[in-house]
Structure formats: structure tokens, C-alpha cells
Amino acid sequence: MLIKQQHKKEMMAVQDSMDVLNGKWKISILSSICYYNKRRFSDILTDVEGISNKMLSKELKELETNKLIIRTVLNTQPITVQYELTEHGLTLKTLIKNLTDWGIAHRKKITEQQ
Questions:
Q1: Which of 47, 57, 89, 108 could cysteine-pair with 68, CB 3.0–4.6 Å?
Q2: 2-113 belongs to CATH 1.10.10.10
Q3: Chain mean pLDDT for the chain
Q4: Per-residue confidence (pLDDT) for residue 114, from 0 to 100
Q5: Measured between alpha carbons, how far is 110 from 114 in angstroms, rounded to an integer?
Q6: Angle between helices 26-36 and 93-113 (to 10 degrees)
Q7: Which helix (H) or strand (E) holds 82?
Q8: Angle in degrees, 0-180, between the axes of helices 53-65 and 26-36, rounded to the nearest 10
Q9: Angstrom distance (rounded) from CA 54 to CA 103
Q10: What 3-state class would DSSP assign to 74?
């Protein structure tokens, strides 16, 4: 019974994580910011192929709401908006690195079979 309760608790934690990181773009956006430490909106837009301005804006707001990124408006002409990971967001660096490593190994495995 204890194992079943522990499994249920861990499955809930996975679901919570997926709820925060869900969608096609969030991991890619976080990866861009994580790789460079600080990133402007236009830089992220360039890094994340296929995302629209509107979708990037929406996803950034959700990441900010979930306290994973900080949005800073710089007093420049024109105004520059910059994003960086919060202290809490920095805890995702290992996860992003692991996903990167897995993705490289998976691509290699798939292309070897063709």
C-alpha cells in the first residue's frame, strides 16, 4: 500500500511539472534563455523556429506567472525587454541539459537505423 501511495504522489508531481512546462514552445524558450542567461524577445523569437510573436508573448507571460523567468524592461531607445531565469527557474538547467543530451543521443540512434 505504501508503494502505491508513493507512486501516486510521484505521478502527481510529474503531472504538476507537465502542467507548468506543457505545450510546444516552453522548453525551447527556457532553453534559449538558459543557454544565454539573458535574452531579448527578438532573440528568443529567432532561436525558437516557427513561434509567432503572439504565441511567444503568451508563453513568456505564463513562464513569468509560474515564477520561472523574470521580465526586465530596460530604459533604452527603443525600449528593450530582457528575460532571464529566476532562482527557481535555474533549477531547470539540469533538466534542460538532460533533455538536450537525450535528444542528441536519440537523433543519433534514429539516424543510424535509416
A1: 89
A2: yes
A3: 94
A4: 67
A5: 7
A6: 110
A7: strand 80-85
A8: 80
A9: 27
A10: strand
Q: Where are the beta strands (DSSP E) in the chain?
A: 38-40, 69-74, 80-85
| pLDDT tens, residue by residue, 56-85 | 999 999 999 999 999 999 999 999 999 999
Q: Is the pLDDT of residue 38 over 70?
A: yes
The C-alpha atoms of residue 109 and residue 46 are separated, in whole angstroms, by 28
Give the Cβ contact number of residue 57 at 10 Å. 13
Dist CA 97 CA 103 (whole Å)? 10
30 and 92 in contact (C-beta within 8 Å)? yes
Residue of 85, 83, 106 lying closest to 94 (CA atoms)? 85
Residue 98 has pLDDT above 80, yes or no: yes
Q: How far apart are CA 1 and CA 112, in angstroms?
A: 44
Q: Are 62 and 68 in contact (CB under 8 A)?
A: no
What strands, in cross-sheet order, belong to the sheet with 69-74? Answer: 38-40, 80-85, 69-74
Residue matched to cell numbers 542528441: 104
How far is residue 1's CA from residue 87's CA, in Å, rounded to a whole number?
37
